[in-house]
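User: I'm new to structure prediction. If I give you an amino acid sequence, what do you actually give back? Let's try with this one:
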Amino acid sequence: MAGNISDEDIQQNILKHLYKINSRDDDAFLSCEIFKEELSLDRADLYRNIDTLKQKGFIDMGNNPGLTGYSIKLSEKGMDTFENPKFTREEIEKAYKTFKIYAEEVTNASYDTYTKSLAAFLNYCKNNEVLEFVIFKFNLIERDFEKWYDNFLNSKMHAHTLPLDEDEKISIIYKFLNEINSGKIKISEFVKSAYKISGKTEKTINKFNQSIFLHFVKGIDIRLKKLMSKIESVPEKTETDEKEVIKKEELPKISKIEVIDSDSVTSKRRLENFEKDNKVVIYPSEVIDGDALSRKLSKNSYNMDNLENALLKLSEELRNDNKSVAAISAVFLLSRNIDSSDLLETQKLLNEAVSAEPCLKDKFKDIAMASSIEVANTGIIKGILALF
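Assistant: Good question. You get back a string of structure tokens that encode the predicted 3D arrangement of the chain. For your 388 residues, that looks like this:
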């Protein structure tokens, strides 16, 4: 292992560099020697990881007389990992919601808290796999940032102008935000030079957000939605599918419902009323989650609303008290998924929140104890009780 870099990181860096080249020229083979210098690798580390990537089928090896030593390029499988990442809809949706929360933290920050909020935002963009994938492609766009920045401030022709190409615009702004985060560029100095607004005030921050930051948020927002649409897209119905639908519609209705995991007397009573409804058709092959169904039919659905509002209120309290963004994000996502049947995901969010802010354990308990019997079987209440 080279220094503190793991083999997995070495392999990812090799694949990313290959993609940068092969996305432009899929026939280009690169000499392995270039990675020794770029990644500061020993020969043994380099070739061990290249052999691993070859065994996994991510790269092809060739013999190019113009190159020294091994020559490699991405295989079809390797290229596919960048073009068609294997993210689930839930992963993308969670990344999208959390991205928006971090972005909102930046836009609502004061001048004094802006640097901290921006750092947390960029840290999430770099460490979340979905965001890292989306932004990685923009990092491949070659544009001299310093030259653009100088033109932005000084050239009358280009003054106050972001690139017209949307991908190039996102790439430039991302580099810009990282320059600010590193301390190389001061927001107050930039806004004063570009827009003639002086002082370390909210007016300075608002102008920067409006002119620069929100363009980046909008661009990533669109890309995440496009990525999700690819996952959500379904093939057109075939003739066979239509026949299956017709066949199902002809099945007789039955009067019995199999109830899963329902120990609530109230829920069972609602299901009995549901069975008597002559507008409802239940097919023999169907098994219904009684708890989920009873919640949807409940005339007392305000109890679910109360649970949602309690979690939303808690997330607002955390925000007002300047608590961890990770905790705020987790609680907010819980409030948006009160009907979720994914207990593992719910427990994960609860654990993330408590890990970031231990005081939330007691607050979650208070919410659970104040909840009515109608919501006793929800994943959130079960998850909270599992904390104790």
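You can read the tokens as a compact description of the fold. Here is one thing that stands out. The CA atoms of residues 51 and 270 lie 62 Å apart.
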